[in-house]
Every structure is written in C-alpha cells, then in structure tokens.
Amino acid sequence: MMQITYLSHSGFLAETETALYLFDYYKGEVPKLDPEKQLFVLVSHGHYDHYKKEIFQLGKSPKIPYYVLPEEVEIPEEAKNNLDEAHFLRVIPGKEYCLEGRKIRTLRSTDEGVAYVIQEQAGTIYHAGDLNWWHWEGEEEPFN
C-alpha cells in the first residue's frame, strides 16, 4: 500500500504502511501525520520553493523524524541543537545510503540539487527534485 498526496509545486507526501516521506515541502497543507510511522523529510536543494526551515518542527513524537538534505542546504542552529546528529543525513548526487532499513539513492537533478530513489518494502519511490528544461529566448543553442 502506498498513498501519494500532492502538496504544491514539487512537494509530495508518500505514505506507506510503515513510513511517511515528505519531499520538498515549502507550501501547501501537510495532512495529519500518523505518529506511529517513521517520518523522513527529504529536500532536493535549498531554493525557497523546495525547502523551508519549518520542516524541522514536524512530527516530534513519538518518533523523531529523519532529515535527508544535500550538503549545501543550511540547517538552522535551533534544529541542530534540538535534534540528535543521527537524524540528519547529508547527501550528494550519485551515492547510495541506508537509513532505517531503506535504501536511498541520489541522482543529479536536471537543475539544482538531487533527485531521490527510495527502496523500501512497499516498493520504490522516485522524486525528481527540481526539473528543468530551460529555454531562454535570445540565448545561443549550446546554452539552451
């Protein structure tokens, strides 16, 4: 069982039987989170429309969330002081990580940051991060 809820822009909540995966949340209403499920908050990159610092206020009990963030994304001092370092996973493109029995693979985004491929018992989840197919009027073809 997997349920996907669109929040806004690139923001999604994926819910499986055992976990919640919140991707690129910056706006929209997050549905009520099941406190019995492990929450993973994933950020593709630090632009305002993919990341807001309020994510560190989500789901404090009974399970502390895990935050999966590219190395360049700033973590507020308050979050660093209130959460154990083990709950922050800093990622770079092209690597594979294991977190709470889940395989998290990062890919390069077509714009900034990373895309995610998560493998868990319910299946595979892919979040592309920031997609880009820029075509700027007046620019040479090699640039576009």
List the helices and strands and how they pair.
Elements: E1 2-8, E2 11-16, E3 19-23, E4 38-42, E5 66-70, H1 77-82, E6 88-91, E7 96-99, E8 102-108, E9 114-120, E10 123-127
Parallel strand pairs: 3-4, 4-5, 5-6
Antiparallel strand pairs: 1-2, 2-3, 7-8, 8-9, 9-10
- The CA-CA distance between the termini, in Å, is 41 Å
Shape: globular
- Series of secondary-structure elements, N-terminal to C-terminal: EEEEEHEEEEE
Main sheet overview = 6 strands, mixed
* CA gyration radius, whole angstroms: 16 Å
**Secondary structure category:** mainly beta
Keywords for this structure?
mainly beta; four-stranded antiparallel β-sheet; 1 helix; 4% helix
Question: How is this structure best described in words?
Answer:
By secondary structure, this protein is mainly beta. The chain contains one helix and ten strands. The longest helix has 6 residues, at 77-82. It is globular. The chain starts with a strand and ends in a 17-residue tail after the last strand.
Describe the structure concisely for a colleague:
This protein is mainly beta and 144 residues long. The protein has one helix and ten strands, in the order βββββαβββββ. It has one helix at 77-82; strands spanning 2-8, 11-16, 19-23, 38-42, 66-70, 88-91, 96-99, 102-108, 114-120, 123-127.
